[in-house]
Amino acid sequence: MEFNQVFPLVLCIFCFSSVDSRPSFFSDFQVLQKPHFRQLSEISLNPSPAPEAYPPTASSPAASSDDSAAIFDVLSYGAVGDGVTDDTLAFKMAWDDACHTDSGILFVPNHYSFMIQSTIFTGPCKNGLVFQIEGTIMPPDGPDSWPKNYSKRQWLVFYRISGMSMQGGGLIDGRGEKWWNLPCKPHKGVNGTTILGPCDSPVAIRFFVSSNLTVQGLRVRNSPQFHFRFDNCHDVNVYSLYIKSPSLSPNTDGIHIENSSDVRIHNSIVYNGDDCVSIGAGCHNVDIRNITCGPSHGISIGSLGKQNTKACVSNITVTDSLIKHSDNGVRIKTWQGGFGSVSKVTFNNIVMDTVRNPIIIDQYYCESKACKNQTSAVYVSDILYTNIKGTYDVRSPPMKLACSDSVPCTNLTISEVELYPAQGQKILDPYCWNAYGALESLTIPPVFCLLEGYPDPDSLPVNDVVDQC
Ligand SMILES: *[C@@H]1O[C@H](CO)[C@@H](O)[C@H](O)[C@H]1NC(C)=O
Ligand SMILES: *[C@@H]1O[C@H](CO)[C@@H](O)[C@H](O)[C@H]1NC(C)=O
Ligand SMILES: *[C@@H]1O[C@H](CO)[C@@H](O)[C@H](O)[C@H]1NC(C)=O
Ligand SMILES: *[C@@H]1O[C@H](CO)[C@@H](O)[C@H](O)[C@H]1NC(C)=O
Ligand SMILES: *[C@@H]1O[C@H](CO)[C@@H](O)[C@H](O)[C@H]1NC(C)=O
Ligand SMILES: *[C@@H]1O[C@H](CO)[C@@H](O)[C@H](O)[C@H]1NC(C)=O
Ligand SMILES: *[C@@H]1O[C@H](CO)[C@@H](O)[C@H](O)[C@H]1NC(C)=O
Ligand SMILES: *[C@@H]1O[C@H](CO)[C@@H](O)[C@H](O)[C@H]1NC(C)=O
What we know:
The chain is mostly beta strands.
C-alpha cells in the first residue's frame, strides 16, 4: 500500500466490555498499545475516541517478550460489524499496522459480520503476519451494490505477501447469488439461454505474487466466482477448509491455482458448482491430499492451452480423496491448439461415488462446441492412475482418455482401478483415442483400448516440449 496521509490512531473504548469475553486465542499474546501517529493509504475519517489497552492478565507474557505477538482488532479501528456498515477502512488500517509489526495479528472477532469492499491488502509485511478470522466477513450484496469504480473481478486480494497465515473458525460469505443470476451466466437467461452482457464476477479470495502462505480452518461459502485463487505464488499450504456453494452455482471453483509451485491442499471439504480444485498453467509440485469433493466438477488439471497458449504443469499428486456426485472425477482438460505439457501426475487412492467420467483426459475441451481441431496440443505424458475405486454415473463411460489426434498421450499407467455402475448392471466400455500406456493390473471394467508401447518419436513434440517447459 502507498502511504500518503497521516492520521492519529483511531481509538475505541467500547470495543470490549471485559477481557473475559475475549477468546482464549488472546491469552498468549501481548496486548497492543500504540498511541502514536500513523500513516494510512487513501483514507480519511473522523477521529474516534481512544482505545483502552487491554489490562495485562496473569497469563499475558511480559510486554518485552520477543516472541509475543501484537493484536490489531478491527473493532479498535472503528469497524462496526453489523453486516451493513462499510468496514473497509478499519480493515485497511488494522492491516497496515499488523503488516508493519513482527508477528502482527489482524483480528476479526466472533459474533460480528463485517462488510468490506473489494480491497487489495499489499505487502511486503513483517514476518509471521496472521489474519485471524473468527467472525464473518462479507462483500456488498451483488453487482448492483458493487461500487462502479471497484474491480468486479476480485474481492479480497493479498498481494506481495510472504509468510502470512490466514486462519480461524470464522466464515467468509461471498454472497454470490445475485452474481450467479446475471443473465450472462450459463443457463440463467430467459429460457435457459446465456445472454451476452457484462459478466465479470469477483473471485472471493485471491493471493497474488505471494509465498510461504498458510490458509487454514476457515469456512467459505457462496463465492460469486472462484472461492480461492492463488496465482504466481509459491510455498502455499491450504489446510482444513470447508467450502460450500450450491451445485448449480456457475464457475464457483473451490480452489484454483495457477502459475504456482510447492502447493499443498489437505484435509478439506468442497461442495460447489464447478471444479473442486483446479490447476492451471505453470503449476509444479502440487500435493492434494484428503479432499472430499462433491457435488462438484471434480479435481481438474486445466483447462490448458486456450487460444494457442503454452501450459506447463508437472509433478502433481492427488491422493486419499473422495469424489461424490460429481460431473468428473480426476480430469485433465486441454484445448485444441495449445502447446507445452502436462507430465508426472499421480492420482492415487481415490474413491468415486456416482461420478460421471471418474477418469477423464479431454484434449478436445471446448466451451462453445465450435472449436476446430488443430495440429498442436499440450502434450500429456507420465500419468499414473492407481487404486481408484467406486461407482460411476452410467451416463458416461468410467474411463475416457481422449487424447489429441496430432499429439498422442504417452506413458499412461492404470493400476487397481475398479469402477462399477452406480445404477443397474450395464457396464460401459472405457474409451481411448490416441492414448499410449499400460495396465499394471486388471481393471474393472477391463481396458482394451490403450495403445501399447510408445508412438513413433517423430510424432511427439518431445524436444520442443523440453525446450518449452
Ligand atoms: C471509488 O470512489 C469512491 C468515491 O469517489 C472513493 O472513495 C474510492 O476511493 C474509489 N475507489 C477506488 C478503488 O478507486
Ligand atoms: C514462513 O513463514 C513463517 C511465519 O509464518 C516463518 O516462521 C518462516 O520462517 C517462513 N519461512 C520461510 C522459508 O520464509
Ligand atoms: C422463451 O420461451 C417462450 C415460450 O416457449 C417464447 O414465447 C419466448 O419467445 C422465448 N424467449 C426467448 C428469448 O427465446
Ligand atoms: C509466473 O510466475 C513467475 C514467477 O514465479 C513470473 O515470473 C511469470 O511472469 C509468471 N507468468 C505468468 C504468465 O504470469
Ligand atoms: C481428512 O480431512 C478431514 C476433514 O475433511 C478430517 O476430519 C480428517 O481428520 C482428515 N484425515 C486425516 C487422516 O488427516
Ligand atoms: C514433487 O512435488 C513434491 C511435493 O508435492 C516434492 O516433495 C518433490 O520434491 C517434487 N519432485 C520433484 C522432482 O521436484
Ligand atoms: C476432432 O478430432 C476428433 C478425433 O479425431 C474427432 O472425433 C472430432 O470429430 C474432430 N472434431 C472436429 C470439430 O473436427
Ligand atoms: C512412466 O510414468 C511413470 C509414472 O507414472 C514413471 O515412473 C516412469 O518413469 C515413466 N516412464 C518413462 C519411460 O518415462
